[in-house]
Design a protein that fits this description.
By secondary structure, this protein is an alpha/beta fold. The relative contact order is 0.13. The protein starts with 6 loop residues before the first helix and ends with a helix. α6 runs parallel beside α8. The protein has 13 helices and eight strands. An eight-stranded parallel sheet has the order 6-5-4-3-2-1-8-7. The radius of gyration is 20 Å and the shape is globular. Helices cover 47% and strands 12% of the residues.
Length: 288
Amino acid sequence: MPRQSLKPLLARGKCLVAPGVFDLISTHMLNQHGAEATYMTGFGVVASALGLPDAGLATYTEMLDRARRIAEFSKAPVIADADTGYGGLLNVRHTVRGYEAAGIAAIQLEDQEFPKKCGHTPGRRVIPLADMVRKIEVAADSRSSADFLIIARTDARTSLGLDEALRRAEAFAKAGADILFVESPESEAEMETIGRHFHQPLLANMVEGGRTPVLPRARLAELGFQVAIYPAAGFLATAAVLDRMYAHLTTTGSSLGAPVPVFDFKALTEIMGFPEVHAFERRWAETA
């Protein structure tokens, strides 16, 4: 059972925003701003933990370890990317049980062929619809609590068109998915079509520089989307700052005159929990 449930947030009737986190510093930083939900991004986790592209190279064990740690520290319920479920039906059952035990609030499963790819990159192919329906049925049957939500994603829009993506999402809903995720619609008009087509909760993937237009929260709600994830915003911003800072350091040989803001070191130590460490040492240290 998840440590926190998304159900009360979805019941409010407005679009729930879930910024993406990719490691534990980003999780701690997001906690400072009262986020309603957290999204564990597959692209960001694979890049930060393995230094590799999001192309089916991360294992279930590696992703579960990061999911467990993020859920442990996140103050908001966590939506977690679980790719294709890391194998066949037995693997899907194992993945669902593992993510639920880790404290995740909602698991995202997609219908891509293995090895999968990031949803806003070319060359993605999907498995037969019947195979993905069975995966969703197994996922719904494998959870121990209905508070642990199943997000069913289809990547069919890019290769097979919007009509096929809608048909697949309909089948996923009948199979037991709680939230539907039609990946990478390519216009606001397509997003409006998706919103009109379903009465079930819908998820919008807002990727800066991706295939789908990034829209304001209010507009997403008008279009019928109950969840908006921003998987890339954090790591794109981080990469931009690192790029400028490291360029400055290697060029000048010093951080003096840095072209970007630098977060206060003392504030970061407080966010990371050093005051508790110091309090422990004051109470239990063996030496002065």
